[in-house]
Amino acid sequence: MNARTWLETLVGFDTTSRNSNLALIETVRDWLKGQGVDAWLAHNPERTKANLFATLPAQDGGMQGGIVLSGHTDVVPVDGQDWSTDPFKLVEKDGLLYGRGSCDMKGFIASSLALVPEFLAMPRKKPMHLAFSYDEEVGCAGAPYMLADLHERGIRPEGCVVGEPTGMQVVVAHKGINLFRCKVHGKAAHSSLTPRGCNAIEYAARLICRIRDLADSFKANGPYDQFYDVPFSTMTTNQIRGGIAVNTIPELCEFTYEFRNLPGMQPDGIQAEVEKYVREELLPRMKAEFDGASIEIETGAAAPALEASEEAAITQLVRALTEDRATRKVAYGTEAGLFQGIGIPTVVCGPGHIEQAHKPNEYVALDQLAACDTFLRRLGQSL
């Protein structure tokens, strides 16, 4: 199958992160087995989802070293979006392929799979690896299970290409992503008896304002990296829920917040500022009103930042194959930092453009798929 045919197959699976991706993963696993390639799966604890890892051995059967081609199989929801076509049926129009995930990032997976027969026929001295994950879109929650298994199996690739949509240009860095859920517990009371309660929403609002103050400080004081479109670390509150009635002091308020840190800026230090404010200022004020008040902060998913080395062999190789020497850094996150974190030098390069991702009528251009095919073919030949 060529890349377009594979993409049609992959888009046909509704792998929205809230759903299982097993039908897609098992289809790919079974096809690879037919090509003589054994893949192993790393499941989530509930065994409702799985990562897939497969090695295309070197000509002498070697499994060590080589390059990983990495992509995530899950996609964002289409709920409430005004699509002109069925989002889970690939539609071609004017050289564009429409469908959820066509750009982000099943296009790269499709090209990788389409070239497997060619890769197997090449007289490669080093292996190629395929790494397809789940739950990237909800904070890179799936890939760590695969990478843990990779370590246990003693597989040590020399480099990795994460095929997020970059227009087939090289991205050498991205910010880290850190997600948190906060629960503020106060005391309910009739609103006519305000002093007898402890208003969870109002105290949550104070903490949210503190988070905004930290964000404003990053914007005003840095540190900065002008290669990013947003050249400083950011913080934002994105969801909130609380209260049961207009005349009841709210007992509970929940909200989520995130920050995206520049490489070199420690996430723990940022979160420590939030927790210090809670511990030293906010919670004592709450307990003065109600001794049973509390604030819980739960750590959600996190994806480390990426800062690729220009001296790394994979960086130099991908730059040479794409003839791209520009320095590009992006604010969105990928799984690249996870691979780098276990000692696998990694860069980001894939078909499509991030501007088309997550939107209704998401698409990838046929010429982008063709460019990806050419790049991956050259990558295989370089081995």
What would your notes on this structure say?
The chain is α+β, with helices and mostly antiparallel strands. The chain is built from 10 helices and 18 strands. Strands 1-2-6-3-7-17 form a 6-stranded mixed sheet. Helix 3 crosses helix 10 (366-382) and helix 6 packs antiparallel against helix 7 (267-289). The longest helix is centred in the last third of the chain and has 23 residues, at 267-289. It starts with a helix and ends with a helix.
One letter per element, helices H and strands E, the order comes to HHEEEEEHHEHEEEEHEEEHEEHEHEEH
**Helical/strand content category:** alpha+beta
Distance between the termini: 23 Å
Stretches where pLDDT is under 50 for at least 5 consecutive residues are none
The average pLDDT value, as a whole number, equals 96
Helical run tally? 10
Shape: elongated
Biggest sheet record? 6 strands, mixed
Report the sheet-strand fraction.
15-25%
Radius of gyration: 23 Å
